[in-house]
Design goal:
Largest sheet: 5 strands, mixed
Strand order of the largest sheet: 2-1-5-3-4
Distance between the termini: 40 Å
CATH class of the largest domain: Alpha Beta
Radius of gyration: 28 Å
Structural class: alpha+beta
Order of helices and strands: EEHEEEHHEEHEEHEEEEHEHEHEHE
Number of strands: 17
Shape: elongated
Number of domains: 4
CATH architecture of the largest domain: 2-Layer Sandwich
Helix content: 10-25%
Length: 376
């Protein structure tokens, strides 16, 4: 265990830990824009400069490993002046239209501009990256807000492994781009949206979020993603009871902040007009059971082929639906045996519900014909 001193506070760290991570874990705030605890250090934003006793000049703390006996100062007058100049340079190439920006309230650059009281740049303002891409159904890329921190490139490489984007060009007009600026759908992008989540500005935004409300207006609810058996934690941002967007959370035990395309963007079924809200039974069975006076016969083609016509069904209560299902199931088992039945369950149920279902099939019905949509 290594012992060092940061801003007069004695802290302990493991060999190989980085100073910035150790400081943040011990409640010592060091400003940063390009750093993420799950990515390799970059040091591109230079906001995390600190002064190490005995060193001739400030150094970036994100990539500096701890050494026993280190004495570090994170807030000298010179360092704070440097940080202010860095933010000033960022906003010289970044619109400060925060009042109409959808990232307002969750923008790291905005937070730092507020911290150093920068209302406008002291340099000549010029946009180097005015490009705007609206080439996919999930998110937009508005590079006038990009600060070239590289977090999106690194997460696509180190976490996702897709390498769909990278730095393109040199100098003032360099940009984050797909190879040859092809549309994202023609690149290796898997549309997981992890680059969107860790973007510190409004350069990458979920389409569902645009124009739908401010961050402080949204209610947050955490749950477990129901698409597969991994068990990722997902947090939904809701306004007026409707989901606006989904994201991972830093405290997610399985996935942290990272999600796949289904977990991040596949929640629109929640408010789909085609979603069933009550049990339905086919009209011929309803007529047979005396639940309707209208006779009906099955069409020559399957009633389930293509998009089912709800006019071929009638709504019943849950009590009726359960009674009909139990009666029909018992009749099949008595006539053809338990292996004539197969049970399919869903990842959208809880673990406890799925356990009860397989127990019912095995112990109640008497068959091992059980499967699950999230079987890995």
């Amino acid at each position: 265990m290594i012992k060092l001193t940061i801003d007069g506070k004695t802290v302990h760290a493991n060999p190989g830990d980085h100073v910035l991570d150790v400081a943040l874990e011990n409640g010592i705030d060091i400003p940063h824009l390009c750093h993420h605890k799950d990515l390799f250090p970059s040091g591109s934003c230079r906001m995390c400069l600190v002064q190490v006793e005995g060193a001739p000049r400030p150094q970036t703390s994100c990539g500096m490993t701890v050494q026993d006996g280190m004495v570090i100062d994170t807030k000298t007058g010179a360092i704070e002046a440097m940080r202010r100049d860095i933010v000033d340079l960022f906003v010289s190439d970044h619109p400060l239209n925060c009042v109409i920006c959808d990232k307002n309230g969750s923008c790291d650059l905005q937070d730092n501009a507020y911290r150093y009281n920068i209302q406008e740049t002291s340099f000549d303002f010029e946009l180097s990256r005015p490009k705007y891409y609206d080439d996919n159904p999930f998110y937009v890329r508005d590079y006038q807000y990009c600060i070239m921190c590289g977090k999106c490139v690194r997460v696509c490489d180190e976490i996702v492994g897709a390498n769909a984007i990278d730095f393109s060009g040199r100098g003032f007009t360099s940009i984050i781009s797909t190879p040859f600026e092809v549309p994202l759908a023609e690149s290796d992008c898997v549309f997981c949206g992890n680059c969107v989540q860790i973007c510190p500005t409004a350069a990458l935004l979920p389409r569902s979020k645009i124009g739908k409300g401010r961050e402080w207006e949204m209610e947050r609810r955490q749950t477990i993603c129901g698409y597969c058996g991994v068990g990722c934690t997902v947090e939904y941002a809701l306004k007026d009871g409707k989901i606006i967007y989904a994201q991972g959370t830093p405290d997610g035990a399985v996935n942290g902040e990272f999600l796949c395309v289904k977990g991040r963007f596949g929640w629109d079924f929640n408010s789909s007009p085609d979603r069933l809200t009550e049990p339905l039974i086919r009209k011929d069975l309803a007529y047979e059971l005396g639940l309707t006076d209208e006779p009906w016969e099955m069409p020559k083609t399957s009633a389930l082929k293509g998009k089912p016509k709800l006019g071929n069904f009638i709504p019943v209560s849950w009590e009726q639906a359960i009674d009909i299902t139990a009666t029909k199931l018992a009749g099949i088992v008595q006539k053809h045996g338990p292996d004539a039945v197969v049970g399919l369950t869903s990842a959208r149920c809880t673990n406890e519900e799925n356990y009860l279902f397989q127990k019912f099939m095995r112990a109640g019905v008497g068959t091992n014909n059980v499967d699950h949509c999230a079987r890995l």
